[in-house]
Specification:
Largest sheet: 13 strands, mixed
Structural class: alpha+beta
Strand content: 25-35%
CATH superfamily of the largest domain: Gcn5-related N-acetyltransferase (GNAT)
Oligomer: single chain
Number of domains: 2
Distance between the termini: 30 Å
Radius of gyration: 18 Å
Number of strands: 13
CATH architecture of the largest domain: 3-Layer(aba) Sandwich
CATH topology of the largest domain: Aminopeptidase
CATH class of the largest domain: Alpha Beta
Number of helices: 8
Order of helices and strands: EHHEEEHEHEEHHEEEHEHEE
Length: 281
């Protein structure tokens, strides 16, 4: 079996594997998965396992500036359990010591991640509901459109990470919306939103809240969800320890799905100040 860097010619085979695992499918609103895969390949962390000329597995990481994040790791379903996926983590993580991922609850996959130096820390929950139910936010909070350069500059100041290439990608997402949340004019969060591939439900794709302890994250996150939802149903990836989870459930939101956040250390993200993009952190 050969492990190599994928090309655009491999995309149909990769998407076939993702579809078999429920991570790709019908394009109802716009193609989300195709551009995402091209971005992962362009970022340099993607690999495919090829057996007798056939792509049998796909893995990809992305360097977030704080850690190397495992975006995807999938084996053709009929070949799961044969050890095909075991070499891929080493191939995509390289020598990175700081590692993160969002893993499914598949018990066959978890040992692969544990052997790669990650430990399960908390549930990562996909929470969905009507953004119009969120009310009573402080009048001092507002959301303003932003450019990739503006968001990247603020994130560099807050975390030291350069995510300009990723913000440029998010800006080009279907009905993509890049914005800041401001309190009294000062930027207190950076957000991106888009539509889903298979439904008109909007997604708060990623939100980073100012690490300053003086900034209370809960109302800031609720304001961002209102912005992302545009009055309709919105999907948000909420980390188990985040107080946002209880607030949304009290508003009638529901848990639509779940993953498991895993990392090589317990302090690589702040679960109360990050609504992550599961593929790109």
């Amino acid at each position: 079996m050969e492990i190599r860097v994928p090309t655009d010619d491999d995309l149909p085979a990769i998407r076939e594997i993702l579809t078999a695992h429920g991570n790709d499918g019908a394009i109802v609103t716009a193609d989300v998965v195709g551009p995402y895969l091209r971005h992962l390949i362009a970022r340099g962390g993607a690999r495919v396992a090829v057996d007798d000329g056939r792509v049998v597995a796909f893995g990809a990481t992305i360097d977030t500036g704080n850690a190397v994040h495992l975006a995807d790791l999938f084996v053709r379903p009929e070949l799961v359990g044969r050890g095909i996926g075991r070499p891929l983590p080493d191939a995509v993580f390289g020598d990175a010591e700081r590692r993160t991922t969002f893993a499914s609850d598949d018990p066959r996959a978890m040992p692969i991640y544990v052997r790669a130096g990650l430990r399960p820390l908390w549930a990562s929950l996909y929470v969905e509901g009507p953004s119009e139910r969120i009310a009573g936010l402080p009048q001092s909070l507002s959301c303003e459109p932003a450019t990739p350069d503006e968001l990247a500059a603020v994130e560099r100041r807050w975390t030291g990470a350069d995510r300009l290439a990723d913000y440029a990608f998010w800006a080009g997402s279907p009905e993509g919306d890049l914005f800041t949340v401001r309190e009294g004019g000062a930027v207190v969060a950076l957000g991106t939103a888009r539509v889903r591939q298979a439904s008109p439900v909007r997604v708060l794709d990623r939100l980073v809240v100012d690490p300053d302890p003086a900034v209370e994250p809960l109302p800031v996150m609720l304001a961002a969800i209102v912005r992302a939802g545009r009055g309709g149903v919105v999907l948000v990836t909420v980390q188990g320890p985040n107080p946002l989870l209880g607030a949304l459930l009290d508003l009638g939101f529901r848990i639509a799905d779940r993953d498991q956040f895993m990392a090589s250390g317990p302090d690589l993200i702040d679960p109360a100040r990050l609504i992550p993009n599961p593929g790109m952190l």
